[in-house]
Specification:
alpha/beta, elongated, 15 helices, 7 strands
Length: 330
């Protein structure tokens, strides 16, 4: 059977248009890139003349088009970008700069919405407390990124440059401005609590530091409760935070970001590193999945004060239990 060029052209155009952010002026954007008239672009996309090989190669590279998907016509194939393969984390700044570049454009989009389904507290909230910021980054630097400066060190704030918290404050500021709909469960602090106890037992965290971190975590827990009751992460922005308690659907760490121009799904892989995709079929599939979570979850916050109090009180008890356990080892 001969290769169906008409189907290939149709699929290529479909993938191309999916990649273009400015849907209203897509033809003008392409004419600027290919240095031709808008009428020529319409002819090419209507298959009257189509793109030249050089133009196709340029567009595939410029828009990161998954050409395999075009050839196979298999909507089950999803392309993911893995930043850490091309740009491994060599220092703390590398990771913070990656987060900053990822969310930089979103902070300027007033209609950006973040859907965050997770079994761990989203990393951005730790940025509210320097002690927690440094502890989490210490763990990642030592166990995930294997940074030489941290591998054989015990925990100390002195390991970090002053600009680290400054950058984290800015990241939190950007995140706090976004509308986020988040799905947590009562195990959301378990990983951090386990890390505190592990590093205490191995001697990489002193009792004094362990108890201080736990006290700071309790302070953060109270702030999270206040944010939930206010339905806001930012005192200057109303109603930009909705929190659901997800009791029955298992999740890892997934973030769906939707804007008027573009959507993307971010998945934790080799946490805190991530992979992401802007595949339209996968975005739609993910939207349905998030809706399923929401349909089976309890909305916390304003109007459900009792449920909210129970949720954060349970987290507080977990923190207290670990603090007592560490004190009993003295």
């Amino acid at each position: 059977m001969l290769f169906d060029t008409s189907e290939f052209k149709s699929l290529f155009n479909q993938e191309l248009l999916n990649k273009i952010r400015n849907k209203r002026n897509w033809a003008t954007e392409l004419s600027g890139l290919l240095h031709c008239s808008v009428s020529s672009i319409y002819k090419k996309t209507q298959q009257d003349s189509f793109f030249s090989l050089e133009e196709m190669l340029f567009l595939i590279n410029y828009y990161s088009i998954d050409i395999k998907k075009v050839f196979t016509n298999d909507i089950g194939i999803v392309q993911f970008n893995v930043p850490s393969i091309k740009h491994p984390i060599n220092n703390i700044d590398d990771y913070l700069n990656r987060l900053n570049s990822t969310f930089k454009g979103l902070g300027q989009d007033q209609k950006a919405t973040v859907y965050y389904a997770t079994r761990e507290l989203p990393f951005f909230y730790y940025f509210l407390k320097p002690e927690l910021t440094y502890f989490k980054l210490f763990i990642f630097a030592q166990s995930i990124w294997k940074l030489e400066h941290f591998v054989n060190s015990t925990f100390s704030i002195a390991l970090f440059d002053d600009n680290v918290q400054i950058k984290c404050n800015k990241l939190w500021e950007n995140y706090s401005k976004l509308l986020s709909i988040e799905y947590w469960n009562t195990k959301i602090l378990d990983t951090t609590l386990q890390q505190i106890f592990y590093y205490y037992e191995t001697g990489d965290l002193t009792m004094e530091d362990a108890l201080k971190i736990l006290a700071t975590l309790e302070e953060l827990n109270k702030e999270l409760k206040n944010m939930t009751m206010a339905n806001s992460k930012n005192p200057n922005i109303q109603n930009n935070f909705k929190l659901y308690e997800n009791k029955i659907i298992h999740t890892s760490n997934h973030v769906l970001v939707k804007t008027e121009k573009k959507s993307g799904i971010y998945l934790a892989f080799d946490n805190p590193n991530f992979i992401y995709s802007d595949d339209p079929d996968f975005i739609k599939y993910s939207e349905n999945w998030y809706q399923n979570i929401e349909d089976s979850s309890y909305l916390l916050g304003r109007g459900s004060g009792h449920q909210t109090a129970m949720f954060f009180n349970y987290l507080s008890k977990k923190i207290e239990q670990l603090a007592n356990r560490i004190k009993s080892r003295f």
